[in-house]
Amino acid sequence: MQGFSEFIDGLTIGFTPVIGGDYRQKDYAYIDLSANNPDLLKLEVASSEAFSIFIDEYLRNRKAKAAYGGYNELRTLYNRSELFNNVAANRNIHIGLDVWVPAFSDIISPLDGEIHSFKDNDNFGDYGPTIILQHSSNGRKFYTLYGHLSRKSLETLRIGDKVRAGEKIAELGDFDENGDYAPHLHFQIMEEMHDYTGDYPGVVKKEDLDLFLKNCPDPNLLLKI
């Protein structure tokens, strides 16, 4: 059987939007938020407001409208949250793709699918409101996750509702409802859900990384930003 990463790569031919509105491929700039980025040392990462300013300045300097990145990225910014930084496990490797755009931006489905589950993961530093879609192509099921949404986005959802590629499914939340982050979308692809509903780990510890990378390939294989 074709590997899952190759399968995902083959689903789209070119740039495939997940953010609605007038965003073209050339409007995106890659951003490094890893522990290797010296600019982050100057930043108070515990402050969502300070991080928003950092993102805005980054985009202005590059004449871009959106920033993206973060797959398989070791980050220190999760140290502020006990959800990730605790005695049991130090989870600090990000396995989704972040897209940094303004709060309340439209989120669209890149593929046909249906609502698998949704939940307000309201812990500090968590996803906040989250939607998971189920997709099927050539008889093969898989899932996409959309985190850091607005609470309004969950109000009228029903499990099993159909969505079409390019259809608005949600909007981004602001820091007061998205887990206390600068506004951004966490987008992730999963081959298996492992009994999760409305949630799936997007930050993992080093010891579990190989398992999660196998189940969660680089989302840019699909989006092709």
UniProtKB/TrEMBL annotation:
Pfam families: Peptidase_M23 (PF01551)
Alphabetically ordered keywords of this record: Signal
Keyword Signal in annotation: yes
SUPFAM superfamilies from the UniProt entry: Duplicated hybrid motif
InterPro entries noted in UniProt: Cell_wall_metabolism_enzyme, Dup_hybrid_motif, M23ase_b-sheet_dom
UniProt xrefs under CDD domains: M23_peptidase
M23ase beta-sheet core domain span: 93-192
Protein's UniProt keywords contain Signal: yes
One of the record's GO molecular function terms: metalloendopeptidase activity
Protein name as it appears in the record: Peptidase M23-like protein
